[in-house]
Structure formats: C-alpha cells, structure tokens
Write a structure and sequence with these properties.
35% of the residues lie in helices and 17% in strands. By secondary structure, it is of the alpha/beta class. It has two domains: 21-258, Aspartate Aminotransferase, domain 2; 261-361, Aspartate Aminotransferase, domain 1. Strands 2-12-11-10-7-3-4 form a seven-stranded mixed β-sheet. Strands 1-14 form a two-stranded parallel sheet. A two-stranded antiparallel ribbon has the order 5-6. Strand 8 and strand 9 (158-159) form a beta hairpin. Helix 2 packs across helix 6 and helix 3 crosses helix 4 (102-111). The protein starts with 5 loop residues before the first strand and ends with a helix. The mean pLDDT is 97. Bound molecules: 4'-deoxy-4'-aminopyridoxal-5'-phosphate. The site of 4'-deoxy-4'-aminopyridoxal-5'-phosphate has 11 residues, from helix 3. 4'-deoxy-4'-aminopyridoxal-5'-phosphate (PMP) binds next to helix 3. It is found in: Cytoplasm. Its cofactor is pyridoxal 5'-phosphate. It comes from Paraglaciecola aquimarina. Pathway: Amino-acid biosynthesis; L-serine biosynthesis; L-serine from 3-phospho-D-glycerate: step 2/3; Cofactor biosynthesis; pyridoxine 5'-phosphate biosynthesis; pyridoxine 5'-phosphate from D-erythrose 4-phosphate: step 3/5. Its main location: cytoplasm.
C-alpha cells in the first residue's frame, strides 16, 4: 500500500509540506480577518503589508541591492519573453542570445517580434557530451539592447553556473527553474525573471528583478500592464495582481529563511543532485548526456535503453508513489525535477527504485 507520494513534476512543482499546511490552516480566515486572503482587496492595508513583507523576504534571500526593483507580474515566464524585448527595445534594435535548449530558444523566438536577434552561441559537444562554450566577444553585436540567456534549461537538464561576461550590455537571465536554489550575485545582471511555479509558489505569477536604469527604455507600444516603469510606479498593482500566488510565494520565502537561506538550501540541492547523478553514472542502464560541468541540479534527465522499458519504468514508479517522472515530450526519456521543496528522502526513494528496476530489467 502506498503511504507517501513524491512529486517530481517540472512545474507546477511540489511545494513544501509545511507551507501547504499553513495555507490550509488559514484558508478560510486569514489572520483574523474572517476572510480568505484571496478575498481581500489588493489595496487593503492587510494585503499591502503581506505584499511588502514578501518582497522584503525575497530581497533578503537574494541580497538584492537597493538599485534594483522587484516586480510581481502576471503572465509567467513567457510573459517576460515578450516583456523583456518590449521594455528594452528603446536601448537598441538588436539583442544577443545564448541558446542552450528549449527555453532560451523560446525566448529568442518571441524576441524576434520586437527586435533583431543575434545568436552568440549554441551548445557544443565536449567529449561526446552536451556543453555550453565560453562566450566569444566577437560574436556579440554592436549596440545590443541586452544579452539574454537561461540559467537552467528545465527541459534539457542543462544549468549554467558561471555568469557570462556581456561587458557593458545588460545581462538578462531567465531563472524560472533555478531561482532561489543557490545564492547569486544580482549585481551582475540587468534583469532577472522567473515564472513562479517551481521554486517560488503556484503558477500565475512571475517575479522580475530590474536594475533601475533599465525601467524606462520601452517601445511606445508596450502594453501598459507589462511596462516595467508603470509596474514599479504602482508597486506591481497597476492591475489586480495574482494575490493568492503572491501570498503563497511569501510563505515559501519565509520557509526558505527558516531553512537557513540560500547557502543552506544550495548545499541540500547539491547533495540531492549528486545522489541522483551518482546513481545514473553507476548504472549503465541509465544514460545522461550532459557534460558534468553543466548538469542541472534542478532537473535531472536520463534515458533508459528502450521506449518499452521507459514506459514500464513510469508505471512502476507511479505505483510506488514516484510521480511525474516522464521527460518533456520534445526530448523524451525521464526527468526528475528536484527543486528546493523536494526532500532528500524523495531522491533516496527514487534512486533505490532506479537501482532495483535496473537489476530486474538490465
Ligand atoms: N522559462 C523556463 C526556464 C521554464 O522552465 C518555463 C516553464 N517551464 C518557462 C520559461 C515558461 O514559463 P510559463 O509557462 O510560466 O510561461
């Protein structure tokens, strides 16, 4: 009989159990208001206090310098695929892109609607494995509005730890699937954005960190609710924000602080990923083709020897409470997403199952 479920979904992903319990406990009556937090006006003093506290906790976690604004936006990660080029187009008619997988490609495709795009580099093969090359400055365009890359390719399982050097050109990063998984030096970036539904909270929200000199370079046609300057002026409440997602994000930030912040969670994340990659490397039955320097600590991808075995693996895994391990449809195989909320016990249960399955089917 199944007692416990571990959810390896890439997003919307599992949330910490204690966060869900707190949300449940105060679902009908938030802090004595006699109402659910989702029934409060976003302009009420209670809600504004909640929103400000969530922003402060987020700032504390990432040590965000004071010359950066934090925006709570609608439209998820893809909303920012459009918002970034529209908001920076006034700086130049071209932008540079590092392409490392499905999501950086998606961002580049969308940006083409608003400006010319220049591909600085694609992934390369290193010792037969997928790797990200160093940036060749001669590949960057003159008068680029920004340089865009994705710090963690959720579909492909590729993570870039080193921050590329884009010189004076503002660096823009899609951190949807690894934000808050480790400390980062925010001062190296012009804009950081992330859809919420992995390490932040439920979907419906994107968090955007914008250096203040980049707030006001938008093309005139930018929709007002995506305009960073307007968003900032109205404290992310130009239109009604996704209040419940914002609230839950606030609970997740508090939880992360209780865990010891990002240095502590990074250590746990590294341990979890090491366990899983060790299992893959020690069992020839499982294959991961990402170069060790670029293996994602959030989305661990692997293949089995055949489609039939992969189908069987998924059925057996689910019967043991190991859920949502199917890889993204465009790459196939398996994917274990092990964001902040995944306890190490989940990874141990998975690797025990993987070794056992390989023994029985190898
Ligand atoms: N960027 C990355 C890295 C992602 O993983 C995702 C979603 N999985 C997106 C962008 C798109 O996010 P959304 O579905 O919220 O638009």
């Amino acid at each position: 009989e199944q007692s416990k479920v571990y959810n390896f979904c890439a997003g919307p992903a599992m949330l910490p159990a204690s966060v869900m319990q707190k949300a449940q406990a105060e679902f009908l009556d938030w802090q004595g208001t006699g109402r659910s937090v989702m029934e409060l006006s976003h302009r009420s003093k209670e809600y504004i206090a909640l929103a400000e506290q969530a922003e402060q906790d987020f700032r504390d976690l990432l040590s965000i310098p004071s010359n950066y604004k934090v925006l709570f936006a609608q439209g998820g990660g893809r909303g920012q695929f459009s918002a970034v080029p529209m908001n920076l187009q006034g700086r130049g008619k071209c932008a540079d892109f590092l392409l490392t997988g499905s999501w950086s490609n998606g961002a580049e495709q969308e940006a083409q609607k608003f400006l010319a795009t220049n591909v600085v580099s694609d992934v390369v093969s290193k010792e037969g494995l997928t790797a990200v090359p160093d940036i060749d400055p001669s590949m960057m365009s003159a008068n680029s509005a920004y340089f865009h890359y994705c710090t963690n390719e959720t579909v492909d399982g590729i993570e870039i730890d080193d921050i590329p050097d884009s010189g004076d050109v503002p660096l823009v990063a899609d951190m949807s699937s690894n934000i808050l998984s480790k400390p980062i030096d925010v001062s190296k970036f012009g804009i950081i954005y992330a859809g919420a539904q992995k390490n932040i909270g439920p979907s419906g929200l994107a968090v955007v960190i914008v250096r203040d000199d980049l707030l006001d370079s938008a093309m005139p046609e930018v929709p007002t609710f995506l305009h960073y300057k307007t968003m900032d002026k109205f404290d992310s409440m130009y239109n009604t924000p996704p209040t419940y997602s914002w609230y839950l994000a606030g609970l997740v930030f508090k939880w992360l602080k209780e865990q010891g912040g990002l240095t502590a969670i990074a250590k746990k994340n590294a341990e979890k990923a090491a366990l899983l990659y060790r299992c893959i490397d020690q069992t020839p039955f499982y294959i991961n083709k990402v170069h060790p320097d670029f293996r994602s600590k959030m989305n661990v991808t692997f293949h089995l020897p055949s489609d039939e075995l992969e189908a069987k693996f998924l059925v057996e895994a689910e019967s043991r409470g190991l859920m949502a391990l199917k890889g993204h449809r465009i790459v196939g195989g398996m994917r274990a997403s092990i964001y902040n909320a995944m306890p190490i016990e989940g990874v141990i249960t998975l690797t025990d199952f993987m070794r056992d399955f390989a023994r029985r089917n190898g």
